[in-house]
Amino acid sequence: MVSVEKIHIERERTRKRPRLAWDVAPPSASEAQRALPVPGDEGFERKHVSPPKRDDDREGHYVFNLGENLTPRYKILGKMGEGTFGRVLECWDRQAREYVAIKVVRSIRKYRDAAMLEIDVLQQLAKNDRGSSRCVQIRNWFDYRNHICIVFEKLGPSLFDFLKRNKYCPFPVDLVREFGRQLLESVAYMHELRLIHTDLKPENILLVSSEYVKLPSYKRISSDEMQFRCLPKSSAIKLIDFGSTAYDNPNHSSIVSTRHYRAPEIILGLGWSYPM
Q1: Which of 18, 95, 200, 273 is the most buried (most CB within 10 A)?
Q2: What does the pLDDT average to over 180-196?
Q3: Can 23 be counted among the known catalytic residues?
Q4: For the whole model, what pTM was predicted?
């Protein structure tokens, strides 16, 4: 006579084992697409809710925490920069499934007005772009809790930041020449549309890629230690920050551009136009 215990063991052996996650066949492309929540769906909105509303800081900057959502579509990953206008945040775009840079403008009227001007210029640049403007591309924009938010393609560091991280070691002449050629193309494209950037400076010229190579320098820190310098892997650049862009008309402001880079004719009050 077979014991009850033995029967129980045999049943356990013949029972189908549970399938592990890695042992399950992956869903088809159509099934995976259907499974992805999309903006507008109740499940998407519930899963990616925005954080409770907070007061802005004293200067009107948007207050955030890493990992929070900037609307259900965008997840905040980090801060890329900060300026007079506001902050630039690195975000993940859940709908387009790509990393983007979002300029979150301060909730102050003059900066909001400047942001709307910039959006108008960016859309005009994008509309007429034949693929060689070398101007940053706008992806989207929205008004969130009294902050104008402009969504851009994610680029690399500015020329200024690259120099700063590289202990201000100068770029090779050939690379400077290539930067200059691309910048002239951007400026010429804007002038075709009767637009004047007015704020050209290293901070507003971004490398397209963040990748770089490390090369030994001729200078030595000591007899045993070699000094290195960094060079960008790609010379491709793009022009950014069109918030101060002026249209070609006689009623533009008499004082423009950052003080450190201001053209002599502006300082002397002689008037200015495209050449500045």
Answers
A1: 200
A2: 96
A3: no
A4: 0.78
